[in-house]
From TrEMBL, chain B:
NCBIfam families hit by this protein: iscU
Organism (species): Hymenobacter busanensis
Cell cycle as UniProt keyword: no
Underlying gene: iscU
Pfam families per UniProt: NifU_N
Name of the protein in its database record: Iron-sulfur cluster assembly scaffold protein IscU
Amino acid sequence: MLKLPIYLDNNATTPMDPRVLEAMLPYFTDHFGNAASRNHPFGWQAEEAVDYAREQIAQLINCDPKEIIFTSGATESDNLAIKGVYEMYAQKGNHIITATTEHKAVLDTCKHLEKLGARVTYLQVNEEGLISLEELEAAMTPQTILVTIMYGNNEIGVLQDIRAISAIAKKHGALFFTDATQAVGKVPVDVIADGIDLMAFSGHKMYGPKGIGALYVRRKNPRVKVTAQMDGGGHERGMRSGTLNVPGIVGLGKACELARTDMEADTARISAMRDRLERELLTLEESYVNGSREHRLPHVTNISFKYVEGEGLMMGVKDLAVSSGSACTSASLEPSYVLKALGLSDDLAHSSLRFGLSRFTTDEQIDYAIGHVKEAVTKLREMSPLWEMFKEGIDLNSIEWAEH
Amino acid sequence: MAYSDKVIDHYSNPRNVGTLDKSKKNVGTGLVGAPECGDVMRLQIEVDEVTNVITDAKFKTFGCGSAIASSSLATEWLKGKSVDEALSIDNMEIVEELALPPVKIHCSVLAEDAIKAAINDYRVKNGLPELEAAKAHH
């Protein structure tokens, strides 16, 4: 029996893998020690578990276990990386380069630093969602201390050309930071081969627990340092104070281990389901995939169904848990800034749905989703004055709309 | 956000979806909103020219569930009312009936605008002066 609603919002968060939960449980009760307690076995046990998790994580992203700084999640990692670099390298310069499609945790951190005197360049993306390497190169200055470009986009799944971007940063003597929250555990990420100096990621986007994340900070070629944003006991090599969240860390470690062992098989299965979902939904007239289909995470598709409003559509697909680029609930009525950055008109941005699959998604669920979305889009189009005009051959741009 | 039962009912079983012949003299059409705002409502009324009573009302809406429900409810309320009575429908009555939350009040405003625009279109077609409210929109 198919259980409803079906969860297809795995870019927001993933369910935790039961194997992760199992690994974590003893660290809530039996092995509750503080990893910083050096004088008794409770502390040693906790420290051992944390060290083991560091190794599991290091193996997934090809780094040294000592290069992992534990945080509360990707938002904190983004803040620590950007603010920490800005403070630490203030003598070198004050220029940061990022892109308009970054996550708010990056964009708002940059905006915060602008108020403190930083100069920030926001690179535009093309209709595929990719930044231009030429524009990046042209934006580099001797004062550029940091280039921060996300690995895979949360709304459209687009993967930037990380190796080319990091090479440009390196050439100009700037550090390269990437928010890889959506990518780590989903696609092979190798901090050495990818030329990454700092990288943020979190547990709950890869079947691990919420409330735990990490920041990779390179220790050699070059040795990178960030100024701590949390003062206290000097944990995590002085970069992030605070008692370590041992069960969370154990969970993140286990999630990384599972990602490493299962990624190939998971990706083959998930991307086949995603492609089938996408293919079927594109048989609906006037439906379009947003962002690059070539450079993309394997589990995401973002589709606009023209002449149907996203929030109305979400209500129509009530048996599916998905996201929309329409922001009718917010006071601003502004649709997704990421979709708008691709050059989508507001009406198409309002008409989008994001589907995020996971290792727990089944073929049966995808079958149901296809039928459910097709039915809802068809029903809403019959109700849509815009669809009627389109069918009558009326150019919607020729109408003088009364904006409200 | 949770929708009220009435919004869900109107959304799932919308009343009076459809199109009236806008070339007819006794049909008034109101088209309000804009695609880039995520809301477009088209509301139409058919008026008995002798009694001045609205005999039929139809809508089509591009928008969220609350927008669809507001326009569906509006068509229900319009039928059987005289044109003058219809003019007095206030958006807050729609808000109350559908239990719309504050972020969705604009949907009811749009429905009221659509009613007024449809009535205005009917008036202009029949040689009556434009409504003040409609004029203000120009």
